[in-house]
Write a structure and sequence with these properties.
The protein is mostly helical. 67% of the residues lie in helices and 0% in strands.
Amino acid sequence: MNPARRNPNRPKVPDLVPLIAAVYASHRAGCCLHVVTDDDNWGSAEFALGEARRNGHPACIAAAEMMVQMTESQISRAVKQVSDARYAEFLAAAEGIAAVMAKANSRGPA
C-alpha cells in the first residue's frame, strides 16, 4: 500500500496544482515531470524526483517532492486541473487568432 494513503497530513491537490503549473509555464513539455504528467505514469514520482535532482531544476524538485507524498489519484487530479487550464488557454488563443484572421479577411485583399 502506498504510504501516502496512511498519511492524513499529506499534501492536497490544490497544493500541487500551482507547482505543476509553474513547471509548465517555463517548460511546455513538462521538463523532469513529463513522465508523470504527460505520460500518465502517476506512480513514477520517485523517478521524476531523481531526474529533477540530477538536472538541478528547483521547480521540478519542489513539485516531485510533493508528488512522492501523495496518492496516484491525487497526482492525476492535480495534473488534470493543470491540463484543463492549459487547454482553456489554448482555446482562447485560437479563438483570438481566428477573430483577427476573420477581421483581416473581411477587409478584402490588401
